[in-house]
Amino acid sequence: MNKIFLCILLFGFSDFYSQTDSSKNIEPMFKNEYLNKVLYYNENSRSHLFYFSYAYGYAPKNKTFAMGGTQYSIGLNISRIFTDKFFLGITYSFDGSISKLFRQNLSNEFVSDFNDNFNDNQLDNIEDSANASTLFGGINKEENYTIDGNGFNLFGVTISPFPDRFGGLAFSMLYGKATYIFHGYQNIIPNSNSNLQALNQKLIRMEFTCKPYFIFKKGKLAPFDYDLKNIYKLITFSLYVEKTSFDDAEFGGNSIGKFVNQPFIDEYSSDYRFGFKLGLGLY
User: Fold this and answer.
1) What residue spans define the domains of the chain?
2) For the chain, what is the mean pLDDT?
C-alpha cells in the first residue's frame, strides 16, 4: 500500500503538475479554453488541481491512545474552478499503517483509571467475555494481548492561500473515526475467524503544514520533468492537534459503556493530543 501510494504521488499526475523551476508547457488536451485552464499548467498557476500527501506521523507520549505511522491524504482543489492562485480543497485523510510501526504508550494514570472502572458484570455470553478480556488484556499489556496498529478515516477541508510561497502554509480541519487494533480475542474463543477487535472513537484534527523549500525560495508550478533530484521540493512538515472522546466509543461492536463504568467515560470525554508528520506533499 505504501509503495503504491508513493508511486501515485510522484508519477500518477506527473503529466499535469509539479513544483520545479522548469518552464516547459504541455500541449492542451481539450479544445475548451476553460477546461484547459482548470486542468493544465500555465505560467501564472500557483496551485494544483489535486492534493496528495504521504507522511510518517509521530505522537509523543499521551495520556490515552495516540495516532502514528504512515498517513495519507488526497484531495481536490475546488477553487481551481474559478482561480488558480490559492488552494481550497476537499480532503480525505487516512492511516494505512494498521501495523506495528507505531506502539501505544498509555499513561499509568489512564491504565489505573480504566482498571478501577472496569466492569464485566453486564457480560452474558462468551463473545462479550472475549471482548472484555481482549480490551483489558491489551490495555494492561498482559501476555498474549497486544495493541498493534491504528488507523483513521477523516474528511474535511484544506486551505492554502499561498501554495508556492511563504512556506506554502496550509491549514486542514478534519473529522472522522479513529481505530485501534487489539489482538488476543482467540485466547477466549480459539475457533474464532479473527484474533482482532477494534476500539473506535470519533476524531477531530486540526493540522498545519508547510513546505520548507518554499520558506526560502518562491517556487514555480510546472509540468513534472521526471528529475528525482527535485524531490526535496515536495518535502512537507506538519504539526497537528487532535481531540478524541470515550463518550461514543465502541469496542467489538459494543458501546464502551458495556465494559467500563460511567465515571471513566466522563473523565476521558475530551482527550487532546499533539503530533507531527514528515513526508512528501503536492498541493
Assistant:
1) 2-282
2) 77
